[in-house]
Amino acid sequence: xxxxxxxxxxxxxxLSDPQLTAALTTLELTVRRKLDGVLQGSHLGLIPGPxxxxxxxxPYQPGDDIRRMEWSVTARTTEPHVRQMIADRELETxxxxxxxxxxxxxxxxxxxxxxxxxxxxxxVHLTAGGGNxxxxxxxxxxRIVRVPAASGRAHARALLKAVATTTRSHAGVRGDLNGAIxxxxxxxxxxxxxxxxxxxxxxxxxxxxxxxxxxHHELLAVExxxxxxxxxxxxxxxxxxxxxxxxxxxxxxxxxxxHDYAVAAAAHRADVGRTIRRxxxxxxxxxxxxxxxxxxxxxxxxxxxxxxxxxx
Length: 312
Known about the structure:
single chain; alpha/beta; six-stranded mixed beta sheet; two-stranded antiparallel sheet; 10 strands; globular
């Protein structure tokens, strides 16, 4: 499949409501067709680790985590049993979505907003079923949109529509990922899955609330990037505008400037990854110039192999 060939545009300013609904339906079909069978209905394939509340024992099934074997029941019944956790039966997933102005940027087949909606759709699909609930906190920098957690296909579509249509702030307003992550802490929610979707550009001032989230929830960060976030083309003199501050400056993109930019971008990305891992999270990277479905499948496969090897 060509990179992102099946990813529709979610520029809410250009789409009517029927067009947006059709685009979300197309995305849903893409996700279902490409990702079905990867998890086979088990959210543990996405984020390993049992829930925190013990439930009833049930017969062992191939693929169950042997660390949850219930030996007393196994001995009594002479049939292998595992302790089912409450989170296994009903998982609550919360998405923290960065909808700041930088997310509307894209130089290849899609924008980072399109990729953000696709990532949200993939997470919802991979954690759906069994009464699992999904909620979202969408932050633009000057406001936060909350989608209460609920289950069901209609709710999932409403959540994705909110992600797609929450418009950026006016020029001069910086994104506030710190405030968005902190908003997930109040009110306190039971153990579940927290997913932060952002390009993680800007200062790393969100580590403290993220560490608190990671201590209470399974944590996944989805990094959405465009090639221009990582390197500059050899274009010579160019006028650039900061999407969030609105500042406009002229640059001469020399080889030295390109080198320094690439080094700084790589260092920042490495700092982001280290910070997320210190907070107990994993990082799934998606790019506007790559096949986001294949990258998602590759990440899920790696997590499953980690589980099989007993890696947390």
